[in-house]
Amino acid sequence: MVDEVDVKILSELVKNSRTPYRQLAKKLGLGESTVYNRINKLFKSGILKSFTAEIDLRKLGMTSEAIVEIKPYPHYVRKLREALSELTYVTEVLLVSGDYPVMVRVVASSNEELASKIDDIAKIEGIAEFRIRYVFETILSRAGSKVLAKILRSG
Length: 155
Prior knowledge:
By secondary structure, the protein is an alpha+beta fold. The chain folds into two domains: 50 residues, Arc Repressor Mutant, subunit A (Orthogonal Bundle), CATH 1.10.10; 78 residues, Alpha-Beta Plaits. The protein is built from six helices and four strands, in the order αααβαββαβα. Strand 2 and strand 3 form a beta hairpin. Helix 1 packs antiparallel against helix 6 and helix 2 packs across helix 3. The protein starts with a helix and ends with a helix.
């Protein structure tokens, strides 16, 4: 799986995924080729999925947000999740337990636009019922890699 060196590399990448391999190697006391090989191994194993930028959508004007809980008709879950995943204004699609097993996070630049996008979602084939939860404030949002690095550090 991963060892202490991998955890150190992941921790540094979480802080700044754009850190050059040479700089990582110097900071961690490793050879540049070791860092390169370790990162490739982390990619190949699926632990490291990508180098991404964390973006504040609110600062880009996407100030309205909602969670849409969806109850699909039987046998429509796969088709529904594929359709939802295609929508650019959908930032998350989750399969969860309960009466409404599909949850979708939707963003928009205004409440009017948000309502229009939710109306579009409601027209997707296979939706039996849905509920809307408007997001007033996001208290905490962590990328999966940050959570992973924290778990690895504490373990």
